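Action item from last meeting closed. Structure (133 res):
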């Protein structure tokens, strides 16, 4: 049985550029993104440093051995269903047993969110817009 996938609608980087997310070791980082997060490898480059472009739901991210600090970067992913997103990650082998859903407000929008820290140190927040009844 295949679990229905959540859709990533938008991605906002914590720093300046989601196409230059720093990783210490690209080869060790890629399996988490392709296996757990469900991205596909689009391209690789060795110039000016080792890097890869990955894509899911029309959203591209760039991972790069660019000397940046991964613990200070990542992205916020707006998803269509945050609970389905967590269930999908678990089905893909994500080891966190229980989601720690939280509510956060940015501007006028309230979000239901959970966080994932990749083995490379990058942090990702998955969020669904909360519609008030």
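Sequence:
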């Amino acid at each position: 049985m295949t679990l229905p996938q959540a859709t990533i609608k938008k991605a906002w980087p914590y720093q300046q550029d989601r196409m230059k997310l720093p990783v210490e070791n690209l080869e060790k980082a890629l399996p988490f993104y392709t296996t757990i997060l469900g991205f596909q490898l689009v391209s690789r480059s060795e110039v000016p440093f080792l890097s890869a472009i990955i894509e899911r739901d029309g959203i591209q991210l760039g991972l790069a051995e660019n000397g940046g600090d991964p613990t200070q970067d990542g992205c916020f992913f707006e998803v269509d269903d945050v609970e389905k997103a967590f269930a999908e990650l678990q089905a893909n082998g994500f080891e966190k047993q229980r989601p720690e859903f939280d509510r956060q407000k940015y501007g006028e929008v309230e979000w239901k969110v959970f966080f994932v820290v990749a083995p490379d140190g990058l942090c990702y927040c998955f969020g669904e817009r909360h519609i008030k009844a």
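Note appended to the action item: Residues 10-129 form a domain with the 2,3-Dihydroxybiphenyl 1,2-Dioxygenase; domain 1 fold (CATH 3.10.180.10).
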